[in-house]
Amino acid sequence: MNTIAPDDTGLGRAVGELPRNAEAWSATPPTERIDLPERLMPLVRDAGADIAEVAARAKGYEAVDFAN
Asked: Which residues, 6 or more positions from 62, have their beta carbon under 8 angstroms from its beta carbon?
């Protein structure tokens, strides 16, 4: 099985920022929190094929063109 070493530099940075941003998140109004998934959906949709490809490679599957 092929293994892919994830680039976790962004993840590590994000996890490190959690404690620093907890107070700001707590102060975020519920209406703004509700809007967050709607703002994120286009980003997730645009990256979906890349996410699926990385997951497939990590499991050892052949490359698949998910865009077509």
From this structure: 56
With residue 51 as reference, give the H or E element that holds it. helix 30-58
Q: What pTM was estimated for this model as a whole? A: 0.42
Q: How far apart are CA 54 and CA 1, in angstroms?
A: 14
Q: CA–CA separation, 33 vs 60, rounded Å?
A: 37
Residues 6-61 have pLDDT tens digits of: 566 777 888 889 899 899 999 999 999 999 999 999 988 899 888 888 888 888 88
Q: What is the largest CA-CA distance in the chain?
A: 46
The three-class DSSP label of residue 24 is: helix
